[in-house]
């Protein structure tokens, strides 16, 4: 099972974007990166380069789609494959109001046959893997038959993997934010699904706080997905390749990291962007190190000012005291 271990960095609506993915790729070469959910209609009719464009260094990267029309999803999947994505993922887990009004996301847990039809259409249209991300259930559903029905349907339709957020989504009475914390986690439900589907790839998501916790889950399922923890303390991602893929552990070269991000930011600014679009994702990378607070302050203030350039990022980096950190570690 070692070679099948997989680590995924989950998208976070209104937080992650292509700049965040580029940053995360500097920390881990192997983790699969997810885009934010893009509605199939937008992919078909919208500004595709703005919605789907990504840097080649982001590979492997998966395009996450939202929708409930099999033919539209199939067309959007074809477009995503042509853009160069390594995987297409169908979101059946997002509980936001915007998603519910469009009849996709978590509310599709109530329509497993339709979800299976969507997967079947997508599988026919592309040659890359097609996967699903879901919840264990919604509202008053019993998670036992609800998750089994969804899993049975999508795997019969050809899905290559199922990623399960181990919480229910409450579409009535809880906000999207509350849906990330309030419904209790039920990891054992996902473990039971894997025990029943031993020859299928089952990954787990929800509330995982560290790589150590993620590795514990790998004793029961095939992969682990981190979202908020990866975003707020991205430095932990430097340990992913060794922990999950057996690579030789290497100390993170912070100088090279900052140089790469400064160059990336400079190109983004040349194209009309702002430094803050890039650096807002980097605020937590030195969490726990001496000088990290000053680093965060500089990025939170100076980097957001009009005209700010990559020199601001390098000034923030200079505030981090690695010598003191090494001394304290000794």
UniProtKB/TrEMBL annotation:
<keyword id="KW-0560">Oxidoreductase</keyword>
<feature type="binding site">
    <location>
        <position position="165"/>
    </location>
    <ligand>
        <name>FMN</name>
    </ligand>
</feature>
<protein>
    <recommendedName>
        <fullName>tRNA-dihydrouridine(20/20a) synthase</fullName>
        <ecNumber>1.3.1.91</ecNumber>
    </recommendedName>
</protein>
<keyword id="KW-0819">tRNA processing</keyword>
<dbReference type="InterPro" id="IPR001269">
    <property type="entry name" value="DUS_fam"/>
</dbReference>
<comment type="similarity">
    <text>Belongs to the Dus family. DusA subfamily.</text>
</comment>
<feature type="binding site">
    <location>
        <begin position="11"/>
        <end position="13"/>
    </location>
    <ligand>
        <name>FMN</name>
    </ligand>
</feature>
<dbReference type="GO" id="GO:0102264">
    <property type="term" value="F:tRNA-dihydrouridine20 synthase activity"/>
</dbReference>
<feature type="site" description="Interacts with tRNA; defines subfamily-specific binding signature">
    <location>
        <position position="296"/>
    </location>
</feature>
<keyword id="KW-0547">Nucleotide-binding</keyword>
<feature type="binding site">
    <location>
        <position position="64"/>
    </location>
    <ligand>
        <name>FMN</name>
    </ligand>
</feature>
<feature type="binding site">
    <location>
        <begin position="227"/>
        <end position="228"/>
    </location>
    <ligand>
        <name>FMN</name>
    </ligand>
</feature>
<feature type="site" description="Interacts with tRNA; defines subfamily-specific binding signature">
    <location>
        <position position="293"/>
    </location>
</feature>
<feature type="site" description="Interacts with tRNA">
    <location>
        <position position="91"/>
    </location>
</feature>
<feature type="site" description="Interacts with tRNA">
    <location>
        <position position="180"/>
    </location>
</feature>
<dbReference type="InterPro" id="IPR018517">
    <property type="entry name" value="tRNA_hU_synthase_CS"/>
</dbReference>
<dbReference type="GO" id="GO:0000049">
    <property type="term" value="F:tRNA binding"/>
</dbReference>
<keyword id="KW-0820">tRNA-binding</keyword>
<dbReference type="InterPro" id="IPR013785">
    <property type="entry name" value="Aldolase_TIM"/>
</dbReference>
<comment type="function">
    <text>Catalyzes the synthesis of 5,6-dihydrouridine (D), a modified base found in the D-loop of most tRNAs, via the reduction of the C5-C6 double bond in target uridines. Specifically modifies U20 and U20a in tRNAs.</text>
</comment>
<dbReference type="GO" id="GO:0010181">
    <property type="term" value="F:FMN binding"/>
</dbReference>
<dbReference type="Pfam" id="PF01207">
    <property type="entry name" value="Dus"/>
</dbReference>
<feature type="active site" description="Proton donor">
    <location>
        <position position="94"/>
    </location>
</feature>
<keyword id="KW-0521">NADP</keyword>
<keyword id="KW-0694">RNA-binding</keyword>
<comment type="similarity">
    <text>Belongs to the dus family.</text>
</comment>
<dbReference type="InterPro" id="IPR004653">
    <property type="entry name" value="DusA"/>
</dbReference>
<dbReference type="InterPro" id="IPR035587">
    <property type="entry name" value="DUS-like_FMN-bd"/>
</dbReference>
<dbReference type="GO" id="GO:0050660">
    <property type="term" value="F:flavin adenine dinucleotide binding"/>
</dbReference>
<feature type="binding site">
    <location>
        <position position="133"/>
    </location>
    <ligand>
        <name>FMN</name>
    </ligand>
</feature>
<feature type="binding site">
    <location>
        <begin position="205"/>
        <end position="207"/>
    </location>
    <ligand>
        <name>FMN</name>
    </ligand>
</feature>
<keyword id="KW-0288">FMN</keyword>
<feature type="domain" description="DUS-like FMN-binding">
    <location>
        <begin position="9"/>
        <end position="306"/>
    </location>
</feature>
<feature type="site" description="Interacts with tRNA; defines subfamily-specific binding signature">
    <location>
        <position position="177"/>
    </location>
</feature>
<keyword id="KW-0285">Flavoprotein</keyword>
């Amino acid at each position: 099972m070692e070679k099948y271990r997989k680590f995924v960095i989950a998208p976070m609506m209104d937080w992650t974007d292509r700049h965040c993915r580029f940053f995360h790729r500097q920390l881990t070469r192997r983790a699969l990166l997810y885009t934010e959910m893009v509605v199939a209609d937008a992919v078909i009719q919208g500004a595709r380069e703005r919605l789907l464009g990504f840097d080649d260094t982001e590979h492997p990267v998966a395009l996450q789609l939202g929708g409930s029309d099999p033919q539209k999803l199939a067309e959007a999947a074809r477009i995503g494959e042509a853009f160069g994505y390594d995987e297409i993922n169908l979101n059946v887990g997002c509980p936001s109001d915007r998603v519910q009004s469009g009849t996709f996301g978590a509310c599709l847990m109530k329509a497993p046959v339709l979800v299976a039809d969507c997967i079947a259409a997508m599988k026919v249209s592309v040659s890359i893997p097609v996967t699903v991300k879901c919840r264990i259930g919604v509202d008053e559903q019993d998670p036992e038959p609800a998750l089994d029905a969804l899993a049975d349907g999508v795997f019969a339709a050809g899905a290559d993997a199922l990623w399960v957020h181990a919480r229910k989504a409450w579409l009535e009475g809880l906000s999207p934010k509350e849906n990330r914390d309030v419904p209790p986690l039920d990891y054992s439900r996902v473990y039971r699904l894997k025990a029943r589907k031993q020859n299928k790839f089952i990954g787990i998501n929800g509330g995982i706080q560290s790589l150590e916790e993620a590795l514990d889950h790998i004793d029961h399922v095939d992969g682990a997905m981190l979202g908020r923890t990866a975003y707020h303390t991205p430095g932990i991602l430097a340990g992913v390749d060794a922990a999950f893929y057996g690579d030789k552990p290497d100390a993170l070269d912070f100088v090279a990291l900052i140089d790469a991000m400064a160059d990336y930011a400079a190109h983004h600014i040349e194209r009309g962007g702002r430094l803050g679009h890039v650096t807002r994702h980097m605020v937590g990378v030195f969490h726990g190190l001496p000088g990290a607070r000053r680093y965060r302050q500089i990025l939170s203030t100076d980097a957001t000012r009009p005209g700010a350039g990559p020199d601001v990022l390098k000034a923030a980096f200079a505030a981090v005291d690695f010598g003191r950190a090494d001394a304290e570690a000794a």
